[in-house]
Design goal:
Elements (H helix, E strand, L loop, with lengths): L1 E5 L4 E8 L2 H13 L7 E5 L12 H8 L7 H12 L3 E8 L3 H10 L5 H10 L13 H15 L31 E3 L100 H13 L17 E3 L5 E9 L3 E4 L10 E4 L3 E4 L3 E3 L3 H7 L1
Parallel strand pairs: 6-11
Antiparallel strand pairs: 1-2, 1-5, 2-4, 3-4, 6-7, 7-8, 8-9, 10-11
């Protein structure tokens, strides 16, 4: 079974999916009985709770109902599909100490394994995360761009040249940023159960028994002076026998216990993000271009790329072997370049000495390879 969790300190949220309203309400009641505050328990109902207007797609309505829950986008998409099919979500805000107990309760009350459920939905034709729902704004935009590309047209950008002076047109520069969340996935339970088994045991023991025999033998001898003649006499012997006596002694021969070990690991997420690059084609006369360039430099204009050898913000920096190592954040003083941390693998700022720069066109090209740069750091 899988749960989605938000691990923001000092508490975290656990989200589980249920097929029926009764199971979701039972889980909420059991959590409340276990000491979780009712204000920390939220139930999101599927079925008829989505937006009812015809202009808003059904799937998009369920996504909107999850907008306040922090979770990976693919989980949000899967839960929205579950709500669309009539399911229910139970979200619990809990501390680190209580999380195991909350997971036990959600599991016991029938939380659905979303990995298995997604596999079933895909076999029924569900495309999963990444495919825009039919009728959404994203699908409409995509269709418009494809149609424009097919006709050889250009999708309009922000602003149009009307010929009026004093008007400023702008092309927006977009950049995607990677947000990595976490979800908790159950890898199964380990249960130790003790029960009583009776086993037949055979043991050998040596027992001794005694018997008394009466022997009569004929005798013919003379009576001696020591013989007590004609007197009453009695002799007797007692027989004994050993019997097996069984007793049992219980002893502890082994102890079995369960304990949980937690380990942290660092996992590198491989994905791609997009950003907008702008190419400037200057078709003006030499005099006009020179005037505009001087004005731009005087006002500190920032451009994507530089035709005059200047190193400016957002320029990509490449090692001599062609590997991109980052993007210019700004010039740090006069002797080094500060790279943007958003393009750094470790999310930190790095600096490049100006002496490493080989030449500058639309990009900054260095005279060192990626291996040499890493070694120098």
């Amino acid at each position: 079974m899988s749960f989605t969790q938000n691990t923001a300190a000092p508490s975290r949220s656990l989200t589980a999916f249920f097929d029926t309203k009764g199971a979701a309400q039972q889980a909420a009641s059991d959590l409340e009985a276990a000491g979780v505050s009712r204000g920390d328990i939220a139930i999101v109902e599927g079925g008829g709770t989505a937006t009812g207007t015809a202009s808003v797609p059904e799937h998009e309505g369920f996504l909107a109902s999850l907008k306040d829950m922090f979770m990976p986008e693919e989980d949000r998409y899967s839960y929205a599909e579950g709500l669309r099919r009539g399911g229910y979500l139970v979200s619990v805000r809990t501390g680190q100490v209580d999380s195991d107990r909350v997971l036990d309760i959600l599991d016991r009350d029938g939380a659905v394994d979303m990995d298995q459920r997604e596999t079933t939905w895909r076999s029924e034709g569900w495309t999963g995360f990444g495919a825009p729902a039919v009728g959404t704004a994203a699908a409409a935009t995509s269709a418009t761009q494809v149609a424009a590309s097919t006709r050889g047209a250009t999708v309009p950008s922000v602003g149009r040249d009307t010929g009026a002076t004093g008007r400023e047109d702008a092309i927006p520069v977009y950049e995607e940023r990677l947000n990595v969340g976490k979800r908790e996935v159950s890898h199964g339970r380990l249960r130790v159960r003790s029960y009583v088994v009776e086993t037949a045991v055979d043991e050998q023991v040596t027992l001794r028994s005694e018997t008394v025999q009466v022997d009569r033998r004929p005798v013919d001898r003379a009576v001696s002076a020591t013989d007590a003649m004609f007197q009453d006499r009695t002799i007797e012997l007692e027989e004994f026998a050993e019997e097996a006596v069984v007793s049992k002694e219980a002893r502890v021969v082994e102890e079995i216990s369960l304990r949980k070990e937690a380990r942290d690991r660092t996992e590198t997420i491989h994905d791609s993000v997009r950003h907008t690059e702008v190419e400037i084609e200057d078709g003006r006369t030499a005099a006009t271009a020179a005037t505009a360039t001087t004005a731009g430099m005087a006002t500190g204009a920032v451009r994507e790329g530089s035709d005059d050898g200047r190193i400016v913000e957002h320029m990509e920096v490449y090692a001599s072997d062609g590997t991109k190592i980052g993007t210019v954040d700004h010039m740090e003083g006069t002797d080094r370049i500060k790279l943007a941390k958003t393009t750094s693998p470790d999310g930190q700022h790095h600096y490049v000495p100006l002496s490493w720069v080989d030449h500058v066109d639309r990009h900054v090209h260095l005279n060192r390879t990626l291996a040499e740069i890493k070694a120098a750091r």
